[in-house]
Amino acid sequence: MGLLEFIFNLVGGIIGLAFGLVGGVLGIVVGIVGLVIALVIGILLLVLLGPIILLLVLIF
């Protein structure tokens, strides 16, 4: 019984570790992708809204 439990625990631990690593890598990738998207959106907003804001500032 002891050996069987040990094997199950070992397999469970390895599976858990694998899922943890995959989750961590996915989290990092998602974070980087999110950061890039945020930067792109920010730059686009600056490029698109910058002239409009400048015009508004000049007018008022």
Written overview of the protein:
The chain crosses the membrane at residues 7-29, 35-59. Keywords: Membrane, Transmembrane, Transmembrane helix. The protein is rod-shaped and about 85 Å long. It has one helix at residues 2-59. It is mainly α and 60 residues long. It has one helix and no strands.
Helix content: over 70%
Question: Largest sheet at a glance?
Answer: none
Helix- and strand-based class? mainly alpha
Low-confidence residue ranges: none
**Residue-averaged pLDDT:** 92
The percentage of residues in β strands lies in under 5%
Which terms would index this structure?
single chain; 60 residues; rod-shaped
Summarize the structure.
This protein has 60 residues and is mostly helical.
Lay out the secondary structure:
Elements: H1 2-59
